[in-house]
Amino acid sequence: MSREALLHFKNIKKSFSGNVVLDGVDFEIYPGQVIALAGENGAGKSTLMNILFGMSVIRETGGYEGEIIFEGKTVKVQSPEDAMALGIGMVHQEFMLLPGFTVARNIKLNRENLIPTPISKVAGKSYELLDNHQIVVEAGEALKRLGMEINPETTVDKLPVGHMQFVEIAREIDKKNLKLLVLDEPTAVLTPQETKKLFEILFNLKKEGKSLVFISHKLNEVMEISDRISVMRQGTYMGTVNKEETTPLDLTKKMIGREVFLNIDKSY
Hints:
It is a single chain. Helix content is 33%, strand content 25%. By secondary structure, the protein is of the alpha/beta class. The radius of gyration is 20 Å and the shape is globular.
């Protein structure tokens, strides 16, 4: 693992209407590392990732304090386009797919392959045509990287819900400069078998040198997939530990601030 951090959240603070939701979050993510972000609902996990991905809700509510340092440079991510240009991808908790579009069009959305026309050579790129054949080919290659047998020409609304999640991931890994992938509660709609498949995909991405942020409240999954675990409680950063140095009980205590009886579900 590289000693130089790919990403450093430095003293990130965020309030909504005077309510503090992030209070001095500060941790690093390294290349080829899976870091889990654990915490109860409302701990601030998704807000932190919305800051990283430049979601409009952050900008429209006054922005944030602190620094995001990416590849050694302070960056201001004002939009998802800014994030994608840096090499940051995100699979949101809510699907970001267009149901009436094909799998291929969803994977290549806003990055479609185009064919120049005589008019476009004069009037500009807006007059180019979609290269539907190449869109299907490249989308199919992204699905093959996942090991998923999904017809790229099927419309998304005809897919099982679990397969929609894999289409979201295929869209991100199709981006040529992907360096960091954030997954927000990615197993919420998956069966145990699909979760195992997802973990295989994430391990392969890690081998390729990609960094991954895995957001989940399912501690059995956190302990399975992560290298390091960062814990948040009510907007406060509670620290980061190596997986080997903690237990689900210890993590739970940090997440909620007291001892609990924990029944770990190992069905996945």
